[in-house]
Amino acid sequence: MQIHIKxxxxxxxxxxxxxxxxxxxMDAVDTIGGxxxxxxxxxxxxxxxxxxxxxxxxxxxxxxKQPIDDFEVLVDGDREQIADYSIFRHIKxxxxxxxxxxxxxxxxxxxxxxxxxxxVAKTLAPTAQIEYTYEVCSPTSxx
Length: 143
Known about the structure:
The chain is an alpha+beta fold.
């Protein structure tokens, strides 16, 4: 796995590109001269956790033939300042699945993801407490 990062302005904006040509824009906070024109690196850690777990959960639900109409994950992280840097100490994910999905199957899929399959969760687990909540919403019928 390889990522190429190139500065794209005179300050802190950068573009990261993976080996498939997919791109993401990063920037720094305005208090140090950034322009908030991209995600900050620590935000990308939360994106990675939510995305990794979402892929696991969706894959497990699909294998269980659960009809998924819509799926969302909200990730919220709290950081603690340690010396000159800060780390995530508490991260909460909220999974929202819409469809005729068995609630127990959604819970089991999330547990499997966070406890067994999600590499990002395993990477963050030594320093961050990761918790989750979830909800299953019924599909809306169209008239």
